[in-house]
């Protein structure tokens, strides 16, 4: 009795857990990032009213932090692209300095040694432009453009992943709500059955064990209600976390349960997985982003190969300076002074001849030129071409080229892996959808058969022809069949929505 009475609880728990795992986006979109979990403390307050799937998806796309982080990454790549374009412009800078020299030093303007305290200023303006750099600037712009476009694809991929995650959790919550209602109906039926059996017991029509079995079954079904409510609360919490709602919004959150058709009411799946795959290749942003990163890696190879080529640049500069060191100048001639020297006449030995020498005393002046005068007098200009021809630099360029080629191969493998994951995801979603549709049909037939069996068992039990244990087994079999049917229904709905998503259709219920 104890083992059979817990069958319903176990089956319902397994149904909820298996559907939660089955609806995980990691299965629908293979090897994608885990569901977005915004940190606490930055959640948003939800507007009032019941939530539809489209409203929940739109709100999550607007407030989810992971999507916003991808947007900031794209803005960063945009700034890097602008910087690479600006690198083609000339550079121009102004420099100025003021220096104090103490003791023996070199005059920065006359380059003479001096032993005094001086103050000097130096000013310069320098402009430079790159004329040729192995096309590295052009290829850098090309690469950064591709990286920026790939980051835009990452934003769209993050939005798509979030939409699928929200759809998964939304259906999980709807499933949990239906399980709560189904189990509550079972409890209500148990209450009526226990009350009717209690009356039959008083009339002596049934044994007391029948009443005890029904009371045990009622307790089991009440436990199943609590379990289903817990699953519902967890599903609601996970959905509101994806939407980045605060505590008040989570507490008031309610979904609008859509009217979903049963899988057997729809036509069998006729989509060709290969055709869906070809359509998805042209639509999904992760495919485009992977191809863009392959092209970006090839541009990096071109940048690295530019290191083999010469570099030519042109520069111009203008400079001047001032020094407080005094400058010695000499004026014009002043008074003349005659001096007579007596020397021996070489023509007449022993005789002395007077020699008159005239000397002049010149005026010496120590001055310091004015500030602006020195700047004008010390003004200098320079034009310069710089040519750098690489010959041997420790094989750095060759190593960079080899590493870039390896990165190209890695990017190509990543692109192939992305395509393989997409193909496998579509094939798996199609197989799961077909299996769920077939499973639902079989489960519905099983429910119909179990319902008939349960009604027959109920009549026999009320007439005392069936004991409580056998009656509970029949009831648990019906409950398990209903749980299987509900599980198959929502699994088919989600897998079908995944296939629609790969075909570019909106996620609506």
Automatic annotation (TrEMBL):
Q: Does the keyword Transport apply?
A: yes
Q: Does the keyword Ligase apply?
A: no
Question: By its UniProt entry, which Pfam families does this protein fall under?
Answer: OEP
Note the InterPro entries from the entry: OMP_efflux, TolC-like
**Matching SUPFAM superfamilies:** Outer membrane efflux proteins (OEP) (SSF56954)
Please state the span of the N-terminal signal peptide per the UniProt entry: 1-30
Kindly list the GO molecular function terms attached to this UniProt entry.
efflux transmembrane transporter activity; porin activity
User: Could you name the domain of life of the organism this protein comes from?
Assistant: Bacteria
The subcellular location is: Cell outer membrane
Keywords (alphabetical) are: Cell outer membrane, Membrane, Signal, Transmembrane, Transmembrane beta strand, Transport
Q: Which GO terms describe its cellular component?
A: cell outer membrane; efflux pump complex
Report the family membership. Answer: Belongs to the outer membrane factor (OMF) (TC 1.B.17) family.
**Name of this protein:** Transporter
Q: Which organism is it from?
A: Hymenobacter crusticola
């Amino acid at each position: 009795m104890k083992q059979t009475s817990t069958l319903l609880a176990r089956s319902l728990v397994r149904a909820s857990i298996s559907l939660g795992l089955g609806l995980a986006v990691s299965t629908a979109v293979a090897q994608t990032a885990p569901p977005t979990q915004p940190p606490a403390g930055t959640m948003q307050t939800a507007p009032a009213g019941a939530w539809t799937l489209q409203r929940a998806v739109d709100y999550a796309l607007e407030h989810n932090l992971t999507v916003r982080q991808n947007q900031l990454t794209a803005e960063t790549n945009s700034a890097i692209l602008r910087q690479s374009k600006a690198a083609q412009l000339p550079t121009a800078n102004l420099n100025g300095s003021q220096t104090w020299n103490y003791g023996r030093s070199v005059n920065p303007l006359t380059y003479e040694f001096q032993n005094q305290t001086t103050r000097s200023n130096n000013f310069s303006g320098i402009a430079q432009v790159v004329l040729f750099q192995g096309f590295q600037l052009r290829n850098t712009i090309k690469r950064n453009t591709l990286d920026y476009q790939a980051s835009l694809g990452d934003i769209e991929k993050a939005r798509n992943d979030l939409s699928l995650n929200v759809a998964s959790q939304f259906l999980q919550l709807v499933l949990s709500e239906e399980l709560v209602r189904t189990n509550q109906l079972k409890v209500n039926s148990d209450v009526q059955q226990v009350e009717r059996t209690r009356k039959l017991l008083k009339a002596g029509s049934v044994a007391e064990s029948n009443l005890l079995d029904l009371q045990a079954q009622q307790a089991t079904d009440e436990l199943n209600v609590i379990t289903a409510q817990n699953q519902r609360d967890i599903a609601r919490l996970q959905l509101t976390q994806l939407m980045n709602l605060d505590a008040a919004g989570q507490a008031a959150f309610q979904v609008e349960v859509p009217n979903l058709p049963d899988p057997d009411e729809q036509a069998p799946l006729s989509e060709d997985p290969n055709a869906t795959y070809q359509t998805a290749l042209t639509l999904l942003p992760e495919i485009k982003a992977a191809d863009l990163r392959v092209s970006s890696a090839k541009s990096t190879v071109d940048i690295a190969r530019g290191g083999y080529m010469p570099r030519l640049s042109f520069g111009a500069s203008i400079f001047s300076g001032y020094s407080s060191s005094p400058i010695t100048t000499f004026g014009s001639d002043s008074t003349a002074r005659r001096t007579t020297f007596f020397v021996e006449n070489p023509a007449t030995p022993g005789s002395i001849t007077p020699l008159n020498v005239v000397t002049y005393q010149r005026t010496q002046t120590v001055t310091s030129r004015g500030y602006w005068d020195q700047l004008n007098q010390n003004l200098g200009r320079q034009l310069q071409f710089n040519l750098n021809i690489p010959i041997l630099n420790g094989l750095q360029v060759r190593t960079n080229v080899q590493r870039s080629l390896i990165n190209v191969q890695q990017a190509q493998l990543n692109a192939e892996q992305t395509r393989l994951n997409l193909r496998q995801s579509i094939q798996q979603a199609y197989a799961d959808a077909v299996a769920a549709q077939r499973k639902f049909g079989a489960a519905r037939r099983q429910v119909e058969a179990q319902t008939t069996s349960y009604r027959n068992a109920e009549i026999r039990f009320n007439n005392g022809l069936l004991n409580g244990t056998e009656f509970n087994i029949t009831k648990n079999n019906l409950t398990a069949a209903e749980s299987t049917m509900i599980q198959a229904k929502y699994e088919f709905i989600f897998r079908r929505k995944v296939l629609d998503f790969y075909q570019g259709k909106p996620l609506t219920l």
